[in-house]
Amino acid sequence: MKETTKFDDFSGDKAISLAKTFAKDAYTKELGVVLSVAFSDIRNLPALGFNQDEPIPLKEYVKKWVSRYFSGYNGRPSKRHGKKSQTKPDPAVKLILRTRREDIDGNFADTLEKGHSLMMTIEGMVGNLLEEYLATILHPYGWYCCWGSTIDAVDFCKEDGSLLQVKTSNNSENSSSIRVRNGTEIRIWFRRFFNKANTFNWVALNEIIGRDIFNEEDSERKFRDFITRTIRENPGCIYIPEKCNIEAVQMELW
User: Fold this and answer.
1) Which one, out of 2, 14, 211, 229, has a CA that is 20 to 30 A from the CA of 245?
2) What is the pLDDT of residue 252?
3) What residues contact 208, with CB distance under 8 A and at least 6 apart?
4) Residue 199 vs residues 6, 44, 170, 172: alpha-carbon distances, Å
């Protein structure tokens, strides 16, 4: 939210009390920590659709915040049910390809288009899987996941106000998140180097969390094991067409 945003009652303690009322038996220490850190700096708070030019009712905001938190938690890869993407391909893309390579027929161009759409959907899941994996690894060290993007541009936080943003690669950083809040810098960690094949950045996470628990090869293997286990236990977490028998075609496109 903007620094100038006003609430009818901006109180972290009252926000916690309201969260306990709304969450009932589902309330956890982790939720409380994330909410408390969120309210330590108004810039931490996601807008959640509220008009920031008018005073925001704290009760309504916390109710929506709690709903967003549980939606993110219950929608993590191990529990979610994937839906078919509603994004339609841009016909100009296929036109450019076939104009540049006139030897590519329409059927193969269609196959490429469908394959690209499927892989883009899967690629989007990598970040969600990474978030859930780290949630299990970092939890014992006091880092709690901000499920449902309940702290703006932050994925994990600690009770002391430490903030961490996680990215799948170093070309996906959101520049708007590079800021200091409540005197605390948002630390940013990425898993892989986008321009170096099979080169990972797990060791850098040790310095951020103050623990020596990650290494380049073993940590990546454990993450991939987590991916395999999660997909096998919940294959429905990502939508894959029932009829996906695409004939393997090998072509040199450049």
Assistant:
1) 229
2) 42
3) 164, 187, 189
4) 45, 32, 11, 16
Which one, of 164, 135, 184, 146, lies nearest residue 70 by Cα? Answer: 146
As a whole number of angstroms, the distance between CA 17 and CA 14 comes to 5
pLDDT tens-digit readout, 202-215: 999 999 999 999 99
Contact (CB, 8 A) for 216 and 203 = yes
Put the strands of the sheet holding 163-169 in their side by side order: 144-145, 156-157, 163-169, 184-192, 180-181
Q: At what angle do helices 106-138 and 216-233 cross, to 10 degrees?
A: 110
Contact call for residues 124 and 116 (beta carbons, < 8 A): no
Q: What is the residue type of 97? A: L
> Are 107 and 182 contacting, i.e. CB atoms less than 8 angstroms apart?
no
- If you average pLDDT over residues 157-186, what whole number do you get? 78
Residue 1's Cβ-side half-sphere holds a number of Cα atoms within 13 Å equal to: 26
